[in-house]
Amino acid sequence: MKLNRSFNTRKLVLLALLTGIVILLQFLGAFIRFGPFSVSLVLMPIVIGAALIGVYAGGWLGLVFGFVVLLSGDAAPFLVVDPAATIFVVLLKGALAGLAAGAVYKLLAGKNRTIAAIGAGMVCPIVNSGIFIIGSYVFFIPTLTGWAEAAGDFANVTEFIFIGMVGVNFLFEFGLNLVLCPTVVRLIQYGQDRRQRS
After folding, report:
1. Do residues 131 and 96 touch, judged by C-beta distance below 8 A?
2. Predicted confidence band at 2 (pLDDT cuts at 50, 70, 90)?
3. CATH number assigned to the domain comprising residue 69
4. pLDDT 10s digits, 92-118
5. pTM metric for this prediction
6. What does 119-135 look like in DSSP terms, one character per residue?
7. How many domains would you assign to the chain?
């Protein structure tokens, strides 16, 4: 009973720490841009939380990420067009990215924790960007068509969304998660395993 309470306290402390890291990285990441939007450096702590704490922790961290995106001004161009749709899409994409990362990790962890971390690291940016793209088509296509025409560098709105808005950011986030998440998760789990043995 005491061991279980101690384990839960450790999880809560780790979740609080990762929540703070998500907030800090999102505000700092607002200054790192490839294209019109900032890079989501926060996907890495979301994946780490989902892997080490659980599916719902991933969802919580993704939701926090969404709130901070709204507060940081990153979603301002969309908030002007349709505030309700923007809030819905931003919160949904963050929460689902975290939940999906946690679900993939949980599904694969029994076979191999490194592969599970890689899978979680891959699915998180895919879901995050995928929900953004779907939301763009559902709620913002007339506005984005106008932005694509004003930019003049794109053949159509689809090219603008995939290349101009999502492309480079997605590749950076995907690559960062792919390289760093499995390493960080393995290091933390190694420390946890050693602590449990001693």
Report:
1. yes
2. very low
3. 1.10.1760.20
4. 999 999 999 999 999 998 898 888 888
5. 0.84
6. HHHHHHHHHHHHHHHHH
7. 1
